[in-house]
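call fold(seq) -> tokens
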Amino acid sequence: MPDAGRFSELGEQGSQAVMEAAAVLERELSAGLTDAKAAGDRLTGEHHVDQEEFDRLVRRVSENTHQLIDAVSSRLLGSTTGDAADQTQRLAADAHDVLDLLLNLSSLAPALANRTMESTFGPRQSPAERPGGADGRHG
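ret:
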């Protein structure tokens, strides 16, 4: 276990970097809410997860989070030397690796969700096949 004292020099610079990164992440998440809402609407309305739509969301999260990790580590490294700098670089590399692993695992989610929903709700129907037709109105 690394000595926590190595990071004491990061103090306020680290807190400021995290606050700035959080503000950027909040803006990016807000911008991605439209895509996430569309995916959620499809899931509840059509009982289906669109793989391409899901992949777009994952790419956006991946890009934003990798940039966030880079921004925080760059900010911390700008005022850090020695063992703390080495540890910060290792932590950033590990964070990138963990993120990639989790996002790669998430790529299985649409197929698993679709299989589960098909067994629960039956085969997927196009909007035209559903009761009420393509426009949702009843005849």
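Residues 125 and 136 are 13 Å apart (CA to CA).
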